[in-house]
Write a structure and sequence with these properties.
The radius of gyration is 16 Å and the shape is globular. By secondary structure, the protein is of the alpha+beta class. Strand 1 and strand 2 form a beta hairpin. The N terminus and C terminus are likely disordered. It is 17% helix and 25% strand. It has a single domain, classed as Chalcone isomerase, CATH 3.50.70. It has a 5-stranded antiparallel β-sheet. The structure holds heme C. Heme C (HEC) binds next to strand 1, strand 3, strand 4, strand 5 and helix 3.
Length: 186
Amino acid sequence: MRMTSTLDTRNALSGPLATALAALLCCSLGMTGPATAEDQPALPKSLADYRFVNAFIVHDQENPLFGMHEFYVNRVGLDAFRHGGPYPEGSEFIGLVYGVEKGDGTMNEGDAQAITLMRKVADAEATGGWQFAMYGADGKAMDIDVVKDCFECHTQVEQRDYVFSQPLSVGELSTVPATETGDASR
Ligand code: HEC
């Protein structure tokens, strides 16, 4: 994936945020270089203990994030997710990424494409305390540059500890209800 500043999401990746991001890209980020597949953390064996967070559909094939992303959070990160961070060590988000199959006014999951991961660890200082990783649909780690391909875009939500997603509000049945004090309005 390549960094883009043109991604249009409900999280407003434009305006002052985009300007701040451009400044970051230009000058200040320490570079750690590409992560080889061997550096990447292992995927969990199952998502049985994870909660569904939300979906994110990028249907523009030209966009580097093209795909239907379905995000999950583990138990360690659940409470922080309700409050908009900060996240304790061991918090983890998983993204299952499918292609986008367009029907007659519909969109559905296409072929399995990739799995993305963010895991909070003590020594990931150059990437906001998060390990970023990406795996093929076969579960094999891919070579990515965690700073350029992932972290630089996530710096737009530094105030939420680099996590874009927020609890969705669908009443009693919300998969991850926000707390009253949580920064989860949208
Ligand atoms: C151009 C911007 C951009 C880039 C580059 C990017 N992401 Fe994200 N990422 C997002 C957005 C936007 C969301 C939240 C979508 C939503 O609201 O559902 C997200 C969500 C996530 C999540 C779920 C937690 C969260 O922040 O909501 C994970 C895990 C994730 N990304 C991993 C990665 C990894 C790994 C890479 C690099 C291979 C990467 N991302 C690159 C924009 C980006």
